[in-house]
User: Fold these one by one.
Assistant:
Number 1:
Amino acid sequence: MSTESPMQRLVGDLAPAFVHLTDDVLFGEVWARPDLSPRDRSLVTISSLVSAGNTEQLRAHIPMGLDNGLTREEIVEAITHVAFYAGWPRAVSALTIAKEVL
């Protein structure tokens, strides 16, 4: 089994500094800050990804959200709620990916 992170496998040979920032700063330091739980961070992240139209990243963040305590229903409800603020097409794209992942 590989000890490489997902980001290392994705772009480690091309952008090692980006891998460091992702693995050590974002997921190491930012996600470990105590003022939001991992569950809440996952909910914010999923909502932000949908709002920005970055739905491809949901393939990683929906399973992470489940691991962090979100329910399937909460994820779908968050996407539904965001649809009214971020746009229907973005929510449809997100729900399509959520259906595949869930």
Note: Residues 16-30 form the longest helix (15 residues).
Number 2:
Amino acid sequence: MARLKAFTMPKWGIEMSEGTIAEWMVAENQLFAKGTVLTLIETDKITNEVEAEADGRFVRLIAEAGQTYPVGALLAVLSDGGEADPAEIDALVAGFKPVDAGFAPDGDEAPAAAPEPVAPVAAASAIPDGIAISPVARDKAVAAGLDVAGLAGSGRGGRITAQDVDRAIAPPTAPTLVGVLPTPPATTVFATPMARRVAAIHAVALEGIAGSGPRGRVRKADVLAAVPVPAPAELSVAAPVPSASGAVDVVAMSSMRRTIARRLTEAKQQIPHFYVRRRVRADRLLALRAAVQGQRPSVNDYLVRACALALMEVPQVNIQVHGQEIHRFADADVAVAVATEKGLVTPIVRAADRLSVAEISAVMAGLAQRARAGKLKPEEFSGGSFSLSNLGGFGVEQFDAIINPPQGAILAVGTARPEPIDDDGAIRIVPVLHLSLSCDHRAIDGADGGRFLAALAGLIENPGLL
């Protein structure tokens, strides 16, 4: 008999709460060998390849490609390679308890959860043997006194599963949804929260919609397919107007883009930002860089070093904010914004205050390459005590950045452009950088931000100190 194991959404990094199944690389009941890539899972920062820990096969794929699931959610059922009894698969699925690992530990077969004691009100013989029902579902139905004769099974071939029985005996409930979208009315239809909200928005009844999700669950796409398309005369003037060519390209947000949108919206709404701005002359820094022989560090590499040393001089800015606590760090872990095809990633130069500019340049080259390839490890982008965002390479003169929580500050750097400055009473025109420091006013005062920029300016204008 095949040995079954639960295949669950893994957890990479302490901040990961969900992942998206980008693609299943093996089909259901297809044999695979140890080391085979089973699936690609997208998180808010990277796409990971999940490899098989041993030979086997998927006896049931539960999660759908393109859908997002929380950490520990059941994605599929594995076997050691042998054929599996559908009843045993049903039992594992019905009794599954979420775990924080990609594979259930050896010996943990995710057994069915023991139901709360219920006084039986019918004998086992009350369910005829001819009805297709799993053993676990039969026991639950008998214990609850449920007549399964009219129950539509969602298992293979119409087999009644434990989930079908649970839904039939559970009191009508609906998730509590809050936000700007309308809350849908209570219904017993098995549907996702988003499907319920979309149905409420478009005044579509969930009853009667055939669900395409696992076990017949109604999904958003099912509801949208049932939304009546208005005739041209019914369209309001507020409807989207296509371009002159008539073509509109609608692109769904990636998992990374959705996470960026959520985190930055929360940061802008919940963090009291204030901004400290300063001009600094960059001619000496650019001259120092030009004198370097061989592989030259980038201007950004010098800025990472300068930020790290300034953070050591003004430790009030080298922090994270966690609720009512301020965490101060002994080293400057500087997160550097890197643009990728999927969105913004902030790999971290750990202990940048201990590294030379050349060492920072080598570290950043590797981090940037892995970031653009989606191969960063969780520890390479999680945490950090400060962020640096430089748009000078795009010709941007000045901008204000949004704080990357839980960090307390972020520095925005524009391009170096020729401007007049006072040089010991003489007017000179030299390249000048425009710096803007965004600070979390819950933990950083204006004086702290001012001292940090003063320290940073001193380092940039006297680059020999770097």
Note: Confidence is low (pLDDT under 50) at residues 100-125, 233-237.
